[in-house]
Design brief:
Layout lengths: L4 H17 L4 H20 L2 H11 L10 H13 L24 H39 L2 H25 L17 H19 L7
Helix pairs in contact: 1-6, 4-5, 5-6, 6-7
Length: 214
């Protein structure tokens, strides 16, 4: 019931991908996609602030000092970083220019201070995390027939991986602004604790691969 559209999207996408991995027929998934698309469009059209965000996404330069300020400052920071960045701690965008620089847009700060190399490093780290998480789930299913372990590992990996990918896409201006943090990096102790707890469960699934039959 809360207006947290970003987290809702993450949850629904994770469930959809788990259903796909579980072998649900494509005709059912196709109907779900159509229903989801209609729901998203309806939510945007019936909510003034979501509609404003969507217009800003399409043309942030229409209001550069207002609604488009945040995403434009994010793009400026990424541009300033160039290849190697301006140096760790030397970024200017975090100094009252970029809103939520410590939280939702921390990736733009990384891009400015560490450049393309730093951005690529973060992206590759999350890609590796997704690969290892899905691989752990698949191996425990293949070797021990543990379907629950597979879906548990896949669900944790997909939820964290999707959150990271959507956050980075927002910072690059590829998606409308969402209130999604970058896992393990954005400011917030409670979010970090939940993320680490989830990774602990994922590690438990991974360790189960080398144990004997349960």
């Amino acid at each position: 019931m809360q207006p947290d559209f970003g987290s809702t999207v993450i949850s629904l996408l994770s469930v959809f991908l788990l259903l796909f991995l579980a072998g649900v027929p494509i005709r059912f998934l196709g109907g779900t996609v159509l229903l989801g698309a209609i729901s998203v469009v309806t939510l945007i059209l019936t909510s003034p602030y979501r509609m404003a965000r969507f217009h800003t996404f399409l043309n942030p330069w229409e209001d550069p000092a207002g609604r488009g300020f945040q995403i434009l400052q994010s793009l400026i920071g990424l541009s300033n970083g160039s290849l190697f960045g301006v140096g760790l701690g030397n970024g200017k965008e975090k100094l009252f220019f970029l809103p939520e620089a410590h939280n939702d847009f921390i990736f733009a700060v990384i891009g400015e201070e560490l450049g393309f190399i730093g951005v690529l490093g973060v992206i590759l780290a999350f890609v590796f995390f997704i690969y290892r998480g899905l691989r752990a789930g698949w191996l425990i299913y293949q070797r021990k027939g543990d379907a629950f372990g597979f879906y548990l590992a896949a669900g944790i990996t997909l939820s964290l991986g999707l959150q990271a990918l959507i956050n980075m896409a927002v910072v690059f201006g590829l998606l409308p602004t969402k209130g999604l943090a970058l896992p393990f990096i954005s400011y917030g102790g409670s979010a970090l604790m939940v993320d680490l707890f989830a990774v602990g469960v994922l590690m438990s699934v991974s360790r189960g691969i080398k144990r004997g039959p349960s």
